[in-house]
Amino acid sequence: MLEIRAARKVFYRGQPDEKIALNGLGLTLKTGEFGVVIGSNGAGKSSMLNAISGSLSLDSGQILINGDDITALPVHKRATRIARVFQDPMLGTAASMTVAENMLLAELRSTRRTLRHGLNARRLADYRERLAILGLGLEERLNTRVDLLSGGQRQSLSLIMAVGGSPDLLLLDEHTAALDPRTADIVMEATVRAVEALKLTTLMVTHNMQHAVDYGHRVIMLNAGRVHLEIGGKEKANVTVPDLIGHFATKTDSMLLAS
């Protein structure tokens, strides 16, 4: 479970270009829930993910994971509980290493054992089982160098590597944005299979309105550093892309009138 309580972050405080990135942001994500975050540029999406992962410190407010206050913890201490996949398929994997070696590298990241002694039949069987969840055939390509994979395959591998330690929370930071539309859809389907199979609590930021409609339990719209709108349940099941665009337009109009 993720709880964000009255999170506030201001950049360049007291200067002419002062920017309020998070303005009392409050958000709760239940265990096993898949939340999809949308919002215009500057709405606070990246700042929120950075605050959760620990790469951005809050001026005030709290962040809790399963009831534990992690607000003051550094990135490396949150890493065992929070996994994050970025939009660049080149990040998170070692291009010159095989799929199996990348899986092992992710598993042994915090140990001093070497890759040469780490790969064994038990681990390879485990990697095949986990990769099979994606439905992309990567379980049959354990000995393939990662630089020979497609962008979608590589991004899906990054996902499985990130969640190998059974994190309490998965953050998807526009992880399909660098892919072509068809590949992005394939990666989203693989993502959903992994999230459901591993029962992951997931928070995904996306600019893809169709993905926001099609995936997740709840759509969360950010604006000016706070939650502007949440759509879940039956309303989420029936929402359309024009509906979401309409909410954007309504908010933009109200901001123009207030200025």
TrEMBL record:
<dbReference type="Pfam" id="PF00005">
    <property type="entry name" value="ABC_tran"/>
</dbReference>
<keyword id="KW-0813">Transport</keyword>
<dbReference type="InterPro" id="IPR003593">
    <property type="entry name" value="AAA+_ATPase"/>
</dbReference>
<dbReference type="InterPro" id="IPR050166">
    <property type="entry name" value="ABC_transporter_ATP-bind"/>
</dbReference>
<keyword id="KW-0067">ATP-binding</keyword>
<feature type="domain" description="ABC transporter">
    <location>
        <begin position="4"/>
        <end position="249"/>
    </location>
</feature>
<dbReference type="GO" id="GO:0016887">
    <property type="term" value="F:ATP hydrolysis activity"/>
</dbReference>
<keyword id="KW-1003">Cell membrane</keyword>
<keyword id="KW-0547">Nucleotide-binding</keyword>
<comment type="similarity">
    <text>Belongs to the ABC transporter superfamily.</text>
</comment>
<protein>
    <submittedName>
        <fullName>Putative ABC transport system ATP-binding protein</fullName>
    </submittedName>
</protein>
<dbReference type="GO" id="GO:0005524">
    <property type="term" value="F:ATP binding"/>
</dbReference>
<dbReference type="InterPro" id="IPR027417">
    <property type="entry name" value="P-loop_NTPase"/>
</dbReference>
<dbReference type="InterPro" id="IPR003439">
    <property type="entry name" value="ABC_transporter-like_ATP-bd"/>
</dbReference>
<dbReference type="GO" id="GO:0005886">
    <property type="term" value="C:plasma membrane"/>
</dbReference>
<keyword id="KW-0472">Membrane</keyword>
